[in-house]
Amino acid sequence: MTQVSYLQDYQNPERHIGKARSRPPQFSAFEQDVELDGNSFTSTPVLNITSGVLGIRHMLGDGRQTISMLFFPGELLDFRCLLDTKGTVSCLLPVTASLYDGDEYDRLQRENAHFNSEHIASNNRQYHIAAQHCVDLARKSSVEKLASFIFECRNRLHVDPTQAIALRLRRSDIADYMGLRVETLSRAFSKLKQLKMITANENDEVTIINEPALRMLANGAG
Amino acid sequence: MTQVSYLQDYQNPERHIGKARSRPPQFSAFEQDVELDGNSFTSTPVLNITSGVLGIRHMLGDGRQTISMLFFPGELLDFRCLLDTKGTVSCLLPVTASLYDGDEYDRLQRENAHFNSEHIASNNRQYHIAAQHCVDLARKSSVEKLASFIFECRNRLHVDPTQAIALRLRRSDIADYMGLRVETLSRAFSKLKQLKMITANENDEVTIINEPALRMLANGAG
DNA sequence: CGCAAGATTGATTTTGATCAACGGCAGTGG
DNA sequence: CCACTGCCGTTGATCAAAATCAATCTTGCG
Asked: From B78, which residue of chain A is nearest by alpha-carbon distance?
């Protein structure tokens, strides 16, 4: 739980304030478990993740933890969405990302029609994912949650349906994201294997071996 | 559960495609329980709600229902965020809203700096609310969920802290939103009253009578 | 090796879902 | 007017699922 101001990695922010519109964003790398605190930013940044996974981690008063949102490679995280949140952005894996200055990002977005439409599409996609996640959390059983999570990973990582899905997250992070305890999650894994819907190799890469059944389960067709 | 194409209410869509930039958006009113299906739209609209409450309703395979997101007056609902979702937008109360054509909205947003910054702020706010909702769903007990919901309503309806909060939603809709059954929700209400944290009048308007305690509870300080 | 962190398994408890019944109330129709 | 109906919310009793508590196993690492 190392606390790091992103400014340490975002050298020479002045370089990004000028008028040039093709200035490349700054690249940065963060180790696993580094926490990026939104309040420690002077210039609110937008992160475009190139590898690894970020999550917004929240802590309840008595220590219960949750991860409300995940960010996979190719997805955008706008730090301004959590200004008044208690949540902190946490690197669930080693992460590399390119950083935009918030104002710079907005300007690009206004001035470049292509960039603008990509931005809108990205926003809508993230919101759609959030809505789906709420559905998963609200009413599904532990096994249904895990089935949904596996599909979510496959989609967001753009894994070919024939390929194995590397869930490189720790069990505890998956559990925090899906609103389960690790023990319950572990039992859900056992259940899916026992039902012959998935298999997993020694690297915890999941292969879906009965996709229709797993899909039904994820959709709550009880 | 009346199914209505928004086109019935959005007369003369051609009028909105021209170049005039100050074209006022179209106003519409919908009755309670009207369902707006995203797939029935030809021109994807953006709704700015002026009164009432909208929700995105989802149905699992075996009939379990969820409401993943709510939209209160002053908030924007971009129908493009649920293009490939099974969810439908449902009027949880009688609703009035102004409708923008999606492309028109995007153009306004690109061309008008003020509109643009309002749009970004709105997006971030909605995303923040979604993240908080995930936290509420993932780990909180039924009573904590209700406490959180009361604060969420107060914030999103901009109710003065000294005033009563009108939760005009049906119990079943609140329950679907918070991932509870109506019976459990009802017991949570009883519990909060018994703990002398809230009172409610005959119109189901809630008054917070011990805000610090209710806040602690909502934050999970167990 | 010894240790720590992560993952799994088992036994027990707690919470919320489920099932069932009831009361209030608005709308309907004789 | 009053029975009848359907919807909504509440309450009570029981059940099932997940949390909790505890122990064990696995793996990587100084």
From this structure: A124
| Averaged pLDDT, A171-191 | 97
Measured distance CA(B17)–CA(A139) in Å, rounded: 42
Supply the CATH number for residue A207's domain: 1.10.10.10
Could you read off the pLDDT of B99-140 as tens digits, one per residue? 888 888 888 888 888 888 888 889 999 999 999 999 999 999
The upper half-sphere exposure of residue A207, i.e. CA atoms within 13 Å in the direction of its Cβ, equals 9
Write out B106-165 in H/E/C secondary structure: HHHHHHCHHHHHHHHHHHHHHHHHHHHHHHHHHHCCHHHHHHHHHHHHHHHCCCCCCCCE
Strand D closer than 7 A to residue B137 Cβ: no
Please write the tens of the pLDDT for every residue from A9-58.
333 333 333 333 445 567 889 999 999 876 656 677 899 999 999 999 99
Q: Taking CB atoms and an 8 Å cutoff, what residues of chain B touch A132?
A: 68, 85
Domain that holds residue A43: 2-132
Query: Token pair of B149, please?
Result: 């919901």
- Of B132, B150, B175, the last residue of a domain is B132
Provide the whole-model pTM. Answer: 0.89
Domain-ending residue, one of A115, A132, A149: A132
φ and ψ of B148, to 5 deg = -65, -40
What is the 3 state secondary structure string of A55-123? EEEEECCCCCEEEEEEECCCCEEEHHHHCCCCCEEEECCCEEEEEEEHHHHHHHHHHCHHHHHHHHHHH
Which alpha helices (DSSP H) does chain B contain, by range? Answer: 102-111, 113-139, 142-156, 171-178, 182-194, 211-218
The predicted pLDDT at position A14 comes to: 33
Q: What are phi and psi of B167, to 5 degrees?
A: -90, 80
Q: Is residue B33 located within the same domain as residue B109?
A: yes
Model pLDDT, residue B80 = 85
Name the A residues in 53-112 with CB < 8 Å from any B CB: 56, 58, 60-62, 64-66, 68-69, 78, 80-85, 87, 106, 109-110
Query: What confidence score (pLDDT) does residue A10 get?
Result: 37
Pick B15 or B79 by higher pLDDT: B79
N residues, chain B = 222
How many Cβ atoms are within 10 Å of A141's Cβ, its own excluded?
15
pLDDT reported for residue A23? 53
Structure tokens at A92: 């669930």
Report how far apart the first and last C-alpha atoms of chain B are (Å, whole number): 40
Count other C-beta atoms under 10 Å from residue A171's C-beta: 16
Q: Which of B156, B154, B178 is nearest to A179 (CA)?
A: B178
